[in-house]
Amino acid sequence: MYEVFGVVPSRAFRVLWMLEELKQPYKLTPTAPRSNEILALNPLGKIPAMKDGDTVLTDSTAIMTYLADKHGGCTFPAGSLERAKQDALTVEILDEFDATLWSAAKHSFALPKDKRVPAIKDALKWEFAQAEARVGQRLNEGPFLMGHKITIPDLLLTHCLGWAITAKFGVSDPTLSAYLDRNKARDAYQRARAA
Known about the structure:
Number of strands: 4
Order of helices and strands: EHEHEEHHHHHH
């Protein structure tokens, strides 16, 4: 059984959702960022962390990739052209969505007050809208980014779109809004939310 350290309203949700999609047993240990418990597992103090036996893994995307490869779900095989395309989408979502939202969060609460630049959020919202338009166009070949199979980029993008709503960025692209609703309705998503 895997042990996940973090809280549901964080990037730990991505790992929980992946475990639910893969139908793998896990235990969630509620752990706050920068707490002594997480610092003992991850010197960066970031959540999530996950234990597989005695080994601690960190970074939500790294953990998701490990789980997908290990259990053969939510991914294409390593070395395939589909995997190269999937990995490119993963990096794009991390660069264009996750990084933009995290930059806004840092300037809202994570940075020391004297280092925050609240006005940067307008530029970040504009960047986010540009990324939305580009990615929304990719959903014309199936219900998921890679066609008819849910993969890591879908879990990442769905999480980021939900985060965007919470952060008051919104989701303006109607295709992405419908995509978000479909993915949030998945049984595995709902079970992860209830963890």
